[in-house]
Design a protein that fits this description.
Layout (H helix, E strand, L loop, with lengths): L1 H12 L2 E2 L10 E6 L3 H4 L3 H10 L6 E6 L21 E5 L4 H12 L15 E5 L1 H5 L10 E3 L7 H10 L5 H8 L5 E3 L24 E2 L8 E5 L1 E2 L10 H4 L4 E2 L2 H11 L5 E5 L9 H10 L3 E4 L9 H4 L1
Parallel strand pairs: 2-3, 2-4, 4-5, 5-6, 9-12, 12-13
Antiparallel strand pairs: 1-8, 6-7, 10-11
C-alpha cells in the first residue's frame, strides 16, 4: 500500500502545473487513463481534461492510472479509492486500454456491466481515440461514450452532470442527447446512428503539466493542426478528426511564449507537421529563443533546406 502512495508523492513533487487550480469538492471526478502515468501525461487530451476540471471552480478532478505492479487503485492527488467518486471519466488511446479499464474496475470493486449498476452513481463516461475508432467493446460497460474531439462539448457535459437534477441515467441522457458525438451505453438506450465530433478550437490544445516522468520528458507539447490531408488506409486520423485544419503560427507562438519559463523543449504535434504553411515561423521562433524544437511526424517529400536548418 505505502509503495504506491510514496510513488504518487514523488510524482506530484516533480510536476510543474501550467495553470492555477480552482477546485470545489462538491463535484468530484475521477480522471482515469488506463495505462501508465508516463503515457498518460504525454497525452494532450488527458492534459486538457485534467486542467478543465480543476479550473472551473465548481469541480475537483483527480487522476488515476493503470500499473500492473500497483497493489491498489488510488488517486494521485489524495489517495482516494476509485469507487469513492461519483463521476468517472475514462480516456482511452490504445486497444489494450480496454482490458486495463476492466482490470481497474474489478480491482476497485465496481460492477463491470452497466445493467447491473442500479444506482445513479457512479456515472461512467469514456472518450479518446480508441473509443472513437471502436466504441462497441464497452457499450455494455460505460454509461456514455464521447466520439471525437471532446474539447468543444466538455463544459456543457460537466455543467449538466454537476446540476444533479436528474433521477436516473436515462434522464441524464435526455439532457445530453443533442450533443454531437455523445452516445449512451446499451443498458440506457440503444442507438442505431451516431456522429463523430470534429470540433476545431480557436487555439491549440497543449500540455498543462510538465514532468520529467512522462514519455516526452520535460517537454511542452502543442498541436499545430488537426486531421490529416492524407487518407492512408492504415491510419484513422484522416477519418475521425475531420479535414486537415491548421493553427496559425501566431496562436502557437503565443501559447509557447506564455509558458516558456517552465520548459526548454517543445514538441509540435500533428499527423503532418510540415503541412502547416506557417510552421517555419514556429521553428524559427524556437531556435531564436534557445528552445529545442521537436516534431511528431515529418513527410520526407516536404523536407527542404529551410526547415532542416
Amino acid at each position: 500500500m505505502w509503495k504506491v502512495r510514496q510513488k504518487h508523492e514523488k510524482l506530484i513533487k516533480q510536476e510543474t502545473l501550467l495553470f492555477e487550480i480552482s477546485r470545489d469538492y462538491s463535484n468530484n471526478y475521477a480522471v482515469v487513463y488506463p495505462n501508465k502515468y508516463s503515457i498518460a501525461m504525454s497525452n494532450l487530451g488527458f492534459n486538457f481534461l485534467y486542467k478543465e476540471l480543476n479550473t472551473r471552480g465548481d469541480s475537483n478532478g483527480e487522476r488515476f492510472f493503470y500499473d500492473q505492479d500497483d497493489d491498489e487503485v488510488i488517486s494521485l492527488e489524495s489517495n482516494r479509492y476509485l469507487n469513492e467518486f461519483e463521476v468517472i471519466l475514462f480516456s482511452l488511446t490504445y486497444e489494450l486500454d480496454y482490458i486495463n479499464l476492466l482490470r481497474l474496475m474489478i480491482k476497485s470493486e465496481i460492477e463491470i456491466f452497466g445493467d447491473r449498476r442500479t444506482r445513479l452513481f457512479p456515472i461512467l463516461i469514456g472518450g479518446g481515440a480508441a473509443l472513437t475508432i471502436n466504441p462497441a467493446p464497452l457499450l455494455k460497460v460505460l454509461d456514455f461514450i464521447y466520439l471525437g474531439n471532446a474539447d468543444g462539448d466538455l463544459k456543457r457535459i460537466i455543467d449538466t452532470v454537476n446540476r444533479k437534477d436528474y433521477r436516473d441515467k436515462e434522464e441524464l441522457y435526455d439532457r445530453l442527447k443533442k450533443i454531437t458525438g455523445l452516445i449512451p451505453g446499451e443498458h440506457i438506450r440503444k442507438v442505431s446512428t451516431f456522429k463523430i465530433s470534429k470540433y476545431f478550437p480557436d487555439a491549440p490544445v497543449h500540455s498543462t503539466v510538465i514532468t520529467p516522468n512522462s514519455e516526452m520528458k520535460d517537454m511542452f507539447l502543442i498541436e499545430t493542426a488537426r486531421g490529416c490531408p492524407y487518407r492512408c488506409s492504415f491510419c484513422s486520423v484522416g477519418r475521425i478528426k475531420g479535414g486537415f485544419r491548421r493553427f496559425s503560427a501566431e496562436s502557437i507562438i503565443g501559447i509557447i511564449k506564455k509558458h516558456r519559463d517552465k520548459f526548454r523543449r517543445v514538441g509540435l504535434v500533428s499527423s503532418a507537421v510540415l503541412e502547416n504553411n506557417e510552421i517555419n515561423l514556429v521553428l524559427k521562433f524556437g531556435i531564436d529563443n534557445g528552445i529545442t524544437m521537436n516534431t511528431s511526424s515529418l513527410r520526407l517529400d516536404l523536407l527542404n533546406e529551410e526547415n532542416l536548418n
